[in-house]
Write a sequence for this structure.
């Protein structure tokens, strides 16, 4: 009996995560996995930037694909590790797995070929990364952020609209005129940066919900998505101009995937307290910047021609900002009904005046 009781007490394990699904500690030995993947990433980066020698396929295909596949496996392991945020990390892991499978399949089908068709079947798997990542981010929000504040989400929406307007003005419209491919190629080219910007806007909205004090998980997720945004935008620009240089910056995608995988296993800070609601300039800095940029585009349009998409985008920013003002503005509160004084309570109702007394029929 005593052995059973002792065994039962000894079998209790400390919780792996806190109430927000953040890890207290990860599995032992995982550090060596990170070191190995970082070494492979450094070799790929050095070869693409400086050409350290050896067959390029070793770095651009094998090292690149191994790190992507390992990142997907690590995120899926995180989903299996504990149930609190399992749905979120499962979706993010499936997104990375779709990305990895598309890359490996592309390497098998077209690796080493000088003329590769565009787009290919792999683009379907790569584009599937976006809805799966969005599903994962939304699921993680439900776990991490119990209190939903609409005006903080609108901060992210305003910034997203500003970035989209700038992207259409500086990248999409000029390059669409110079695109050398067909309409399908053009759509696929610019689907990547546009969807990346939408994901970045979602992350910015999360930062607003966290009172601009994001924890390491959200910082690393944002950094990983930013890496993929930079790589996708660079590739789309080069592809639209017909000067895409394969393999020169693949390490940026590899780095983005590895950072997202590390976000899944980063440890929670000790004694973390809930972030207080921002006040003062910090509470309105982002919408003010968005409105300033939108107003600047409208003023610029008075002197130089500006496309319709930029005008519509900046007007939408101003509309969103106006809605924010309405949502966050103070509301008039109903005047409380005064409570009766003790004298009124004990004395009872006052007798009616003599001239208002009821007369008999």
């Amino acid at each position: 009996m005593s052995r059973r009781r002792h065994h039962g007490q000894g079998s209790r394990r400390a919780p792996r995560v806190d109430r927000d699904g953040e890890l207290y500690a990860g599995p032992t030995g995982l550090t060596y996995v990170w070191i190995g993947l970082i070494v492979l990433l450094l070799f790929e980066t050095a070869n693409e930037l400086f050409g350290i020698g050896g067959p390029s396929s070793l770095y651009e295909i094998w090292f690149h694909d191994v790190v992507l596949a390992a990142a997907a496996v690590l995120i899926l392991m995180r989903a299996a590790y504990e149930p609190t945020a399992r749905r979120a990390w499962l979706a993010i892991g499936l997104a990375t797995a779709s990305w990895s499978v598309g890359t490996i399949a592309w390497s098998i089908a077209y690796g080493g070929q000088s003329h590769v068709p565009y787009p290919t079947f792999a683009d379907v798997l790569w584009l599937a990364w976006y809805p799966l990542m969005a599903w994962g981010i939304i699921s993680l929000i439900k776990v991490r952020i119990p209190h939903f504040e609409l005006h903080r989400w609108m901060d992210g929406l305003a910034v997203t609209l500003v970035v989209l307007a700038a992207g259409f003005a500086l990248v999409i419209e000029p390059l669409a005129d110079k695109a050398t491919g067909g309409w399908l190629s053009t759509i696929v080219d610019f689907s990547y940066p546009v969807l990346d910007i939408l994901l970045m806007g979602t992350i910015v909205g999360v930062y607003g919900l966290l009172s601009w004090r994001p924890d390491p998980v959200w910082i690393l997720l944002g950094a990983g998505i930013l890496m993929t945004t930079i790589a996708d935008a660079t590739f789309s620009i080069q592809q639209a101009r017909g000067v895409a240089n394969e393999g020169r910056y693949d390490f940026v995608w590899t780095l983005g995937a590895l950072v997202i995988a590390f976000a899944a296993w980063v440890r929670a800070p000790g004694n973390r307290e809930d972030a207080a609601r921002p006040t003062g300039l910090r509470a309105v800095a982002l919408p003010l910047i968005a409105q300033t940029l939108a107003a600047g585009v409208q003023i610029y349009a008075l002197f130089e021609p500006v496309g319709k998409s930029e005008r519509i985008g900046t007007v939408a920013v101003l509309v969103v900002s106006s809605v924010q003002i309405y949502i966050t503005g103070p509301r008039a509160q109903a005047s409380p009904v005064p409570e009766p004084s003790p004298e009124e309570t004990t004395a009872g109702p006052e007798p009616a005046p003599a001239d208002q007394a009821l007369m008999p029929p």
